[in-house]
What we know:
By secondary structure, the chain is mainly alpha-helical. The chain has 2 domains: about 1-40, no CATH class; about 45-145, 434 Repressor (Amino-terminal Domain). It is about 60% helix and about 0% strand. The protein is built from 8 helices and no strands. The longest helix is centred in the N-terminal third of the chain and has 21 residues, at about 45-65. GO terms for molecular function: DNA binding. This is Plasmid maintenance system antidote protein VapI. InterPro entries: Cro/C1-type_HTH (IPR001387), Lambda_DNA-bd_dom_sf (IPR010982). It comes from Neolewinella aquimaris.
Amino acid sequence: xxxxxxxxxxxxxxxxxxxxxxxxxxxxxxxxxxxxxxxxxxxxxxxxxxxxxxxxxxxxxxxxxxxxxxxxxxxxxxxxxxxxxxxxxxxxxxxxxxxxxxxxxxxxxxxxxxxxxxxxxxxxxxxxxxxxxxxxxxxxxxxxxxxxxxxxxxxxxxxx
Length: 160
């Protein structure tokens, strides 16, 4: 008999590291506790939780070496703006960043530069280095895919 398992791709911790049977009584009990507690939270606390969740997603993306999909660092900025209810235009005006350049960053056509990483880091409480690490990871991933038949380099071969 086939088990009826529903997979939560985010995992129980939001990092995608575990499978969860969403039909189990333990999961349903946990879910109802979380819902009950979240209803009593202030708007500020809910936003703080959302931002923390996105930060964990960013760190999880960085820690995965077998990622098939490139997520532009700007996409995380876009998600953060959605969570706090701030328009892209308002954000670009606030940080003194050209709106069309911001849109290009959000769509992945341009990279998050150190200036934008510093400003977004300060606003959202996420280390600027994380934004730049995401850009570096994506650049290496893209380069690796474009470089067919790369020579295998090794220290032992070099020392011969």
